[in-house]
Amino acid sequence: MSTIEQNLQAVHQGIVAAIQEAGRPAGDVALLAVSKTFGADAVLAAAQAGQRAFGENYLQEALDKIAAVAALLPRAGLEWHFIGPIQSNKTRPIAEHFDWVHTVEREKIAQRLSEQRPAGLAPLNICLQVNISGETSKSGVAPQQLRALALQVAALPHLRLRGLMAIPEPAVEFERQRAAFAQLRALYEQLRGDGLALDTLSMGMSADMRAAVVEGATIVRVGSAIFGSRNYS
Ligand SMILES: *Cc1c(COP(=O)(O)O)cnc(C)c1O
Questions:
Q1: 168 in contact with ligand 1, CB cutoff 6 A
Q2: Distances from the Cα of 204 to the Cαs of 27, 41, 69, 75, 215, in angstroms?
Q3: Ligand 1 center from residue 37 Cα (angstroms)
Q4: DSSP states along 79-101
Q5: 162: containing domain
Q6: Of 29, 59, 191, 199, which is most buried by a Cβ count within 10 Å?
Q7: Is 87 part of any domain?
Q8: Can you list the residues of the chain whose pLDDT is less than 50?
Q9: 84: domain CATH number?
């Protein structure tokens, strides 16, 4: 068994354990394998071990990798998620080559993604990135502006608003990790209460996956626990 396959098994076991701890239904959490900085060979190894969804942060690196993987495994049916910062002049290749975008934080970017989504493809799945309190990076919409943005994005024809995403400030203690994810979950429940048909909470990475699953994550984005440590992030 490859190291990547072993790591994937361990991550799946961790997800199952956290689901049981939370008393949630089995199979409720999807694993997004974050392959940024790793090559097509790493994606192939994970795909051969059954992994289907991959997350990428850097557009040019991602486009090269998607093409390389498609050439080697043409019918793998992989799903690509963009999870990095988005510059407005780079929306077209994102709209053309990805299935999901987790990092929408402005209406202008959403409009461009919708306009540029090719007609033959299914709507692009969208999560809004939220700047929950204590987040060190300045990315994400402020909670006060979230509802207005969600209503705008939900109305765009070639997008499908699926839910929310956040990257909380790294915290060592489990309870602090949980508190940050609980904030995102509360915002998600409010929007659902407003009638938006959301089904996705994208939260939790290698170091805080358990707390995220206990707080209701439906997608965890895991990189280093699967592929090993990176030289840059
Ligand atoms: C890199 C990255 C991840 C994965 O982080 P790990 O700590 O390697 O699991 C998840 N989400 C985003 C947005 C990232 O940039």
A1: no
A2: 16, 25, 26, 29, 10
A3: 11
A4: EEEE-S---GGGHHHHHHH-SEE
A5: 3-227
A6: 29
A7: yes
A8: none
A9: 3.20.20.10
Q: Which atom of ligand 1 is nearest to the CA of 225?
A: 9
pTM above 0.90, yes or no: yes
Task: Choose which residue among 32, 58, 83, 184 to substitute to test ligand 1 binding: the one with the highest number of ligand atoms within 8 A of its C-beta.
Answer: 83
Domain count within the chain: 1
Q: What is the pLDDT of residues 62-103, one digit of tens each?
A: 999 999 999 999 888 999 999 999 999 999 999 999 999 999
Query: Which pLDDT does position 138 carry in this prediction?
Result: 75
83 lines ligand 1 (CB under 6 A): yes
Question: Does residue 93 lie in a domain region?
Answer: yes
Region of residue 167 (phi > 0: left; psi between -120 and 50: alpha; otherwise: beta): beta
Round to whole Å and give the CA distance between 133 and 143. Answer: 9
Which pLDDT value is given to residue 233? 59
DSSP-derived secondary structure for 6-62: HHHHHHHHHHHHHHHHHTPPTT--EEEEE-TTS-HHHHHHHHHTT--EEEES-HHHH
Question: Residue 232 domain-assigned?
Answer: no
Instruction: Tell me whether residue 115 is in a domain.
Output: yes
Decide whether any atom of ligand 1 lies within 6 Å of the 224 Cβ: yes
The half-sphere exposure of 31 on its side-chain side, counting CA atoms within 13 A, is 27
CA 146, 152, 153 angle in degrees (round to 5)? Answer: 85
DSSP state letter for 201: E
